[in-house]
Amino acid sequence: MDDATCCCICSGRQHGVEVHNIVLNANKEPSDCLSILRNEDEALFPDDEFLFADPRLNGLVLDLDRLQVNAEQTTLYVCHPCNGYLPRFLMPCYALANRLYRGHFPEEFQDLTWIEERVCAKFTNTAVVTRHYQSSDSSQSTCSTAIHAHTR
Ligand SMILES: [Zn+2]
Questions:
Q1: Is residue 141 part of a domain?
Q2: Can you give the residue range of the structural domain that contains 34?
Q3: Cα of 59 to ligand 1 centre, how many Å?
Q4: Are residues 82 and 118 in the same domain?
Q5: Of 36, 38, 85, 134, whose Cβ has the fewest other Cβ atoms within 10 Å?
Q6: Ligand 1 centroid distance, CA of 133 (Å)
Q7: What share of the chain is helix, strand, coil (3-state, %, to 5)?
Q8: Which are the contacts of 109, defined by CB distance < 8 A and separation ≥ 6?
Q9: Tens-digit pLDDT profile for the chain (152 aa)?
């Protein structure tokens, strides 16, 4: 998969989701709506954690690998769900800036499998979706769902 289709705000790789390009021209200030992505947990991360080649983005919690910087312009690749929140100055729910960023893996852990990551993770999320049927008639389509989740 091409990395350009990933989102710099949520770091998500979503199949079939439209990706928008937010282009910042070299001589123009970025939109104020990006300020919602500013790092609020300054004590948790080193000072240089959120420094970018384009200094206008410094301090924003963005995935460095999902933006493109050159002399003429900077392009942020943003998924459709995240792009829907920004013009309204709302924090995208899956944004790294929404206290979901936990840092980088050390170099020696870069090639871990998914299960190895789960075993040694400081934080893991578990979500279970259950359906609650209100009738014993299987032809009834009325049901409700509930999500039970926790973070360890
Ligand atoms: Zn996104």
A1: yes
A2: 3-88
A3: 18
A4: no
A5: 134
A6: 33
A7: 20, 25, 55
A8: 117, 120
A9: 454 468 999 998 777 788 899 999 888 888 888 999 998 877 778 778 899 999 999 999 999 888 899 889 999 999 999 999 999 999 999 999 998 888 877 888 888 888 888 888 777 777 777 777 665 665 555 667 777 776 66
Ligand 1 center to residue 9 CA distance, Å? 5
Looking at the structure, tell me whether residues 7 and 73 fall in a common domain. yes
Residues 114 and 62 in one domain: no
**The two structure tokens encoding residue 10:** 């949520």
117-152 exposure pattern, b = at least 16 Cβ within 10 A, e = fewer: eeeeeeeeeeeeeeeeeeeeeeeeeeeeeeeeeeee
CA of 119 to the centre of ligand 1 (A): 26
The separation between CA 132 and the C-alpha centre of its own chain, rounded to angstroms, equals 31
